[in-house]
Amino acid sequence: MNKTALITGASKRIGKSIAEYLAGKGWNIIVHYNSSKKLADEFVRLLCSKYPNQNFYLVTANLNDMDEVVALIPNVISEFGEFQLLVNNASIFNAAYLKETSLELFNNQINVNLKAPFILIRDFANHCKSGNIINLVDTRVTTNKSNFAAYSISKKALWELTKMAALEFAPEIRVNAIAPGVTLPPNDKDDKYLLDLAENIPMKKPGGVKPILKSINYILNNNHLTGQLLFVDGGENLGQNA
User: Which residues, in sequence order, are CB contacts of 194 under 8 Å at separation 6+?
Assistant: First the structure.
């Protein structure tokens, strides 16, 4: 019997790549989306066509609305049954220094990047009771740069939550995190933007999504690994060589 994964923000970008990768490994996928219904529909149709012996489902929830977040996993289980992997991939990423951060921006970042994963982690533990949780954080958790202040705080807290959940839920549930760095360009930028950023990291090149997928594979296949953070950032967390 195939295992099933719920991936938040799975209709595009990194989440879509994770979903495609796991589908290729024989997983059933629950594709979560918020506003990208057309993309999500097309993606699920593609997966169904490519892997006709597996199951692919669509679920929607606004991760900025805590009522919808609280309902998400109970609704999923009621509709599709228990699942074995939760990937907290969805996040929002808005620039603002501390002194420029509005209450609305702060709340949005905390809601989507921390409160929603907290609730989903809690509900996975209570309803599914065994399996794996993988949280996507960010290499920024190692620095105190404040140009994305609220975002960075939310990801730092998500990493702390990863360790706390790993300790509480062991041995039935393993909880780990992955910290990408220069991976994909923002929607309004091109590859040159990414290459310019990569000049400042030790490996001097963007990582793309493959290192993230390899890390997911490593986590899932190492059953003695929990409470760990895998950096897939080309060494960015090390700082710059003076």
Answer: 182, 184, 185, 206
